[in-house]
Amino acid sequence: MAEVQPETPVLTPAPVSTPRTAPLWHVVLLDDNDHTYDYVIEMLCKLFQHDHASAYRMACEVDRAGRVIVATLVLEQAEFKRDQILAYGPDWRIEKSRGSMRAVIEPATT
Length: 110
Known about the structure:
Layout lengths: L23 E7 L6 H12 L3 H14 L1 E8 H12 L15 E6 L3
Antiparallel strand pairs: 1-2, 1-3
Helix pairs in contact: 1-2
């Protein structure tokens, strides 16, 4: 009698999945006339750890263009940083400054 060999299962490797990265969001600082360059630079250095030169360039850009991207982060971090800007408070250097600067978050397109 012939010996019956059990069938050997064919193993196929599982497809390699590439990890999905979370979508990124820009934190955008909006210009106004109630905050000084010193305020903007101080805030960007304190909240985002930007060096003085980068913060100065961003202050110039927001003044010139009306807006500047100050960070690009995952949604939860972007919301937190936007909220920190909104809560930073008025510029004590300007009497008419009554509150923080404005900021929004926008999807970062790749």
